[in-house]
Amino acid sequence: MPDKDDPLAALRARAYELADTGRYEDWASLSADLVDEGSPDVIVRRLTHDALFQIMLKNRMTSARGG
Prior knowledge:
The chain is mainly α. It has helices at 9-19, 27-36, 41-48, 51-64.
């Protein structure tokens, strides 16, 4: 459940949901889909600079693809 005090929490949660589908190999393709779903590009780009999030997301994408 997203943290109400963190404006990016819901976006992070959705990114993890998408990563878990196994359809993504990189942040660029996943972030493009977040924008297509209606998330503001400027907000999505903020997650690009979140190093810990990027590492965790990459691990989830790899695991979801069986790697």
